[in-house]
Write a structure and sequence with these properties.
The chain is elongated, with a radius of gyration of 18 Å. 26% of the residues are buried. Helices cover 34% and strands 23% of the residues. By secondary structure, it is α+β, with helices and mostly antiparallel strands.
Length: 128
Amino acid sequence: MESVNAVGRRKAAVARVILKEGNGAITINKRALDVYFPSSILQYIVKQPLATLDAVEKYDIHVNLNGGGYKGQAEALRLAIARALVKVNPEDKPALRAEGFMTRDPRAVERKKPGRPKARKRFQFSKR
């Protein structure tokens, strides 16, 4: 199997993934997964698509990750890994879709409006 590329996005985060056959090493921006994401919850989010398909130690994953915060980055990476796994084996798509890993989360920060301090917040009203 040759390498498979995929992209995942969430909020302002973009994850570009290269998936190769290997022994389960995940490298993010030239750092190990547990170094880049010290939180076990975020590591769990990243590994969810692999765990669903029992492929945790089948593939080596190299990731270029930028933008956003750590939660958005973890979820962008989850989408990218799921898309790469589907490119490898299209029959896995229904299982990943059922878990919700194939859907790009469209929610992003609402823009700030003119004449207001934030997107929806208004300045304090003064009667007098």
